[in-house]
Amino acid sequence: MSHASLSTTVSTLSAYGWTPELDELFAPLAEAGLTPARIARVDRGQCDVVLADPESGELRTVRADSRPVGSPNPIDCPCTGDWAAVDLSADPMPTVSALLPRGTAIIRKGSGGRSDGQVLAANIDTVLIAASLAAEPDLGRIERFLALAWESGAEPLVVLTKADLVDDADHIRADVEQIAPGVTVLVVSAETGEGLDVLRACAPGSTALIGQSGAGKSTLTNALAGTDVMAVQQTRATDNKGRHTTTTRELIPLPGGGAVIDTPGLREVGLYGGEGLAQAFSEIEELAENCRFHDCSHRSEPGCAVAAALADGVLPERRWESYLKLQRENEWIASRTDARLRAERARQWKIIVKSARPPRP
Ligand SMILES: Nc1nc2c(ncn2[C@@H]2O[C@H](COP(=O)(O)OP(=O)(O)OP(=O)(O)O)[C@@H](O)[C@H]2O)c(=O)[nH]1
Ligand SMILES: [Zn+2]
Asked: What is the ipTM of this complex?
C-alpha cells in the first residue's frame, strides 16, 4: 500500500477513532495486504466491519468471517468497537485475520453464575450510563455501573434521561452527583432536546451507552445520530420487565464525528474485578487513608476514619453497604478467575512437558 493511500485511510477512518498511532501499529499488517477496520457489530462467526476502501478511500461496511479470531475465552473474542485487520481478498468472503490490542474495554462478569468475563464494548472514550428520571433512581445500580465504567479505562458520564417527565430533575441530579465522585451528571430529554448539545460536547470520540432496559438508550442514540437507527420500545414501559428492544451491540457513526455503541439493557451487571470500584468510591478510599492503622478493616479498630464518618453521617450507611457488597463480589470473581487461570496454566504446562518428553525406547 502506498503512503498516500495510508494517510487517506487515517483521515477517512478518523471519524471512527483511528489515529496515527494505530496506523503506525498497523503498518506491518498493511504491508501484509490487510486493511484496518472497526468492528461495528458481531454475530455468530461473522461481523460487520467499517473500513476505508483501499481503492476509493471511501467508508464501506463489509461483512467478514470472524472465525479465525474466535477464542474459547469470551474476553478474547471479537467485540463491537474492536479494531481489526481484514483480508479483503479472502475467498469466499473477507475475513478478520487479527484483532488489535484494546485501549479500553467494558467487561462484566458473564451471566448465569459463570466466572468468565464478557466484553460489552471496546476502544471507547466515554461510558455513558443512562438512567431514567421517570422512576426513582436506583443508586446502587448506578454505583455498580460506575465501577464497571471506571474499570474499562474510559471516562464515565451519567446521563439522566426523560427530563420532560419530571419537575425536580435538578434535585435528583444532586442526589446522583453525591454517589458519583469526579463524574459529570447530565440531565437530558430526547423528547424536547434538552441537554443534548451539552451531552454531545461532553462525549466526543467513541461512546458506549449502558443502562437498564427502558432507560432510553436507543432513543438517545437516535437523537444523537439525528436519525432512527435503533428500534425503540413501542409503549412506555412502566415496569421495564422483559421488554428488551435492543438485542445487539451496534456501533453507530455520529454526524459531528465520533460514534456511539448502543447496548441492550443490562439486568445483571456483575463486576469483573479490578480497581474500578476504588475509583467509583474514591471518597471512601480517601477516608480510609486517615485510619490510624493502615491495614484497618473498618470494623472495630480504634481511630477508624470510616467508622467516624459513618457515625457523624458524613458517609451514608447505604453508600458504605453498597461498597462492601461490590467489594465482596469482586473478591469472589478474583478468586474464581485466579483458580481458572491456574488450571489453564497447569494444562498448558502439561502439554509442553508431554511434547518435550523424549520418545520411549
Ligand atoms: N417522555 C420521554 N420518553 C422517552 C425519552 N427517551 C425515551 N423515552 C421512552 O422510553 C421508552 C424506552 O426507550 P428506549 O430508547 O427503547 O430504551 P432502551 O434503554 O434503549 O431499552 P432497551 O433497548 O430495552 O435496552 C420508549 O417508550 C421511549 O419512547 C424522553 O426523553 N422522554
Ligand atoms: Zn478504618
From this structure: 0.97
